[in-house]
Specification:
Blueprint (H helix, E strand, L loop, with lengths): L19 H8 L3 E6 L4 E7 L7 E2 L2 E2 L1 E5 L16 H15 L18
Helix pairs in contact: 1-2
């Protein structure tokens, strides 16, 4: 009886690390939405926790980046120095400058008159 040792592929055992820029964006209370475009480009939008896009002067906050054939689309494990990582750093700068302390106008309910 022969016992075979399973061959392990070292490439599948690579350590996945979480991108620190992405975790900083999450710590501010934002999320990232990735949308694919044509010609190998993608776009990352800054969104709130509910999935609504954050806008600045009516324009959504986003950054375009090259997709690299789908290898760097996941912002959680994007490589340090990749196109997506540099885009996340730009989004983090804008997210840090957003003032969340601005109070929204309260909706006052009008009393209903009974006749």
């Amino acid at each position: 009886m022969t016992i075979t040792n399973p061959v392990t592929n070292e490439a599948t055992k690579r350590n996945t690390s979480v991108n620190p820029t992405y975790t900083a964006i999450l710590a501010l209370g934002f999320k990232i939405e990735i949308r694919s475009q044509n010609s190998g480009k993608s776009r990352a939008y800054l969104t709130d926790g509910k999935g609504g896009r954050i806008t600045e002067n009516g324009t959504p906050i986003f950054v375009d980046f090259y997709d690299n054939k789908g290898q760097s689309v996941n912002p959680v494990v994007s490589r340090e120095g990749s196109h997506l990582d540099s885009g996340l750093k730009k989004i983090l700068e804008k997210a840090g400058s957003i003032d969340w302390l601005v109070e929204k106008p309260s909706k006052i309910k009008k009393p209903k008159l009974k006749m």
